[in-house]
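Postdoc handover notes: sequence design on the structure in folder B. Input tokens:
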């Protein structure tokens, strides 16, 4: 894992040397920002340039690979015009889930408001509902390790869906799983969040995850039920 206190200024220097004033905004997103990173976590950077070509992606790749653990640096890379045209329903979580290191992200975004946030919540929950059902139907064809990974991905998606649903309910953006767990009062939401925590397998132990189909089926049921009732209850506009 990286030490952000030393890695952050090194990354800013490397990318400024690579792009100069073309680098309009740089920030951090993802598990490192939330304090949930593990040894296998990517480093999710936000990089906004005046424009982005394939050559620019090669330049970004080379700049990051000049740094310790830079090969883990991925994330969101975008040109100014593309960001200005980004769908508004994604912008609430995008902006609030970014720690800006350089530049002014808000000034680069199109306007968005409450209707967009509510639409974002409905789309997020609808997509998760579809993926829960789809994954459940296909998981029996997977090996045990792949089944556990598939459920882990759904639980990660649940966190992001609950995060924006909570914002619609309360007007508050809660950045981490641990903080959201302290805010949640619904017991199903709390159960699913606990299983979505870093280093927490979706059942009591890694071994039991592989062999206890009942535990996995229970979590699938909770996910499906939560998506169903939440989607129906969210305001349509």
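Designed sequence:
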């Amino acid at each position: 894992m990286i030490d952000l206190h030393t890695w952050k200024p090194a990354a800013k220097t490397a990318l400024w040397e690579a792009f100069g004033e073309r680098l309009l905004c740089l920030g951090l997103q993802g598990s490192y920002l939330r304090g949930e990173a593990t040894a296998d976590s990517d480093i999710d950077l936000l990089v906004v340039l005046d424009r982005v070509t394939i050559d620019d992606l090669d330049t970004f790749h080379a700049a990051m690979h000049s740094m310790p653990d830079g090969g883990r640096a991925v994330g969101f890379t975008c040109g100014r015009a593309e960001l200005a045209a980004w769908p508004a329903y994604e912008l609430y979580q995008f902006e609030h889930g970014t720690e800006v290191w350089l530049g002014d992200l808000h000034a680069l975004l199109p306007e968005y408001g409450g209707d967009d946030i509510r639409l974002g919540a409905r789309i997020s929950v609808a997509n998760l509902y579809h993926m829960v059902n789809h994954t459940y139907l296909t998981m029996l064809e997977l090996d045990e390790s792949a089944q556990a990974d598939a459920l882990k991905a759904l639980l990660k998606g649940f966190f992001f869906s609950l995060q924006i649903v909570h914002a619609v309910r309360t007007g508050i953006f809660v950045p981490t799983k641990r903080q959201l767990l302290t805010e949640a009062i619904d017991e199903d939401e709390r159960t699913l969040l606990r299983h979505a925590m870093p280093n927490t397998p979706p059942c009591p132990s890694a071994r039991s995850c592989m062999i206890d189909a009942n535990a996995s089926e229970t979590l699938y049921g909770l996910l499906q039920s939560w998506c169903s009732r939440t989607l129906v209850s969210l305001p349509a506009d």
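Context for whoever picks this up: Residues 144-170 form the longest helix (27 residues). Don't rerun without checking with the PI first.
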